[in-house]
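Record type: monomer structure entry
Structure origin: computed from sequence
Chain ID: A
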Amino acid sequence: MYKKPSLSAYIRAKLITIVIFEVLLYSLGLILIPQEYQNHYFHVSFFILSLIITFYFVYSMVLEIKKELKLLEKYLSGIDSIDETNEKTSYFTKEFENINMRLVHLLRKIKKRDSKKRKYTAKIKLKNRQRSDMLSAIAHEFRNPIAAIMGYAQTLNDDDEIPPTLRKKFLNKIYNNGEKIEELLSRLLLWNRFESGEQKLQLSKFDIGLLLKDVAMNLEEKYKNRKIVVSDEVLIIKADKALIEIVLKNLIENALKYSDEAVEVRLEGGKVSIIDRGVGISQENIEKVTKKFFRTEEHSWDNSMGLGLAIVKQILKLHNITLQIKSQEHQGSIFSFNLS
């Protein structure tokens, strides 16, 4: 197999070739040119010819080296188009081939580092955009209850002659809006624990059928004149009771918010289903409603800053459970998950 020479070996070979060529040329001159013409002019002329030949060969070597350097410069300037063919490019010396190989590897490392940097920058931009969305959502969600609290409080403060029944009603409004703010803060703190990976499961055994009834009863007190039908089943599971309660509360409350009829809660064969006959969700948005801060424009779908269903999905994911959603617009939705 042919091995490319080093640069020093290449130059030595060239110089030896020049010397041999000039010696042979001089010898031929001595043999072929008559003796009477071999004077000082002959030797001076041959010396000048030798210099010209030497300069020519040296110049040709410089051109070869210049050509190789231009090729390397091309690779350096073509960092965005480095490919496998660069490593196979032919060079006349081993040094230039090694330089090319190292430059190609170096440029690939730089490209890889730039790619990582771009991904990191894109990730930072996404985080900043999400933070901005979250602040916007927080401002939107907190504005109404805070305005209500301030309005009722101002009315109570300005009018000392408000009837007791109306005063009690206003105080209840203030309390309910304060409760809503507390719930929003709880969801934010819970989501923050999910984001940071700090949320851990506190497993215990309990009857989810009984928990369903407790959650339904509490929500019926909150949503007056609304009916929640819960199946009478017993199922002992091992899970984080506090987190599963949040899941049930969020799903049933969503069903109450976006439907006018009774909400049905089924527990059958280890499967929990929350069924409503409300506005429903379009097919294109079913996969999106569990994403944080997501809201559709169709029905102003609003899970308290867009975190309600996102939290449900995260809690179930911690339990290795998948949330299943079936829905049709104007017909209703079914949110379900298997515990068995």
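Annotation 1: Strands lie at 203-207, 228-230, 236-240, 263-268, 271-276, 324-328, 332-338.
Annotation 2: The two ends are 68 Å apart (CA to CA).
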